[in-house]
Design a protein that fits this description.
The protein is α/β, with parallel strands linked by helices. The protein is built from five helices and five strands; from the N terminus they run αβαβαβαβαβ. 45% of the residues lie in helices and 14% in strands. A five-stranded parallel beta sheet has the order 4-3-2-1-5, with helices on both faces. It is globular. The termini are far apart.
Amino acid sequence: MDNTEKSQVAPGKTSEALPETAAEDNNLAGTAVSPASSAPRVFIINTDPRNSDILSRCLKTMHPDDILYLMGDGVNALLDDELFDVLTDVPSLYVSSYDMTARGINVFCGEEANAAQLVELVSKYGSPVTFK
């Protein structure tokens, strides 16, 4: 393989890894994401957000068309008045009805959802982004 062939192979491998990293860096910095990743994404919080900054980090990363799905201990956010108020402003919020029932939570905002609806969202929008 001469130098011409090497230079053609190396950029292809590099360019495959860079778009994901660049998009993640842009998301974390709160800057615009490239047009290729402008489709809505599903964000999942499944750990208790009451004693961490997990919810605020997630919301800073999300765009207005993105979807937030609370499940597992993530539904405990509904028990905190401040977090509840923040969640009422999330345009596309889904909360696991199974996890609310398991924890005896009967107040919610957003849309009550089940596992089948989560599967539909992931099928439609791709692999979810999970915040822990």
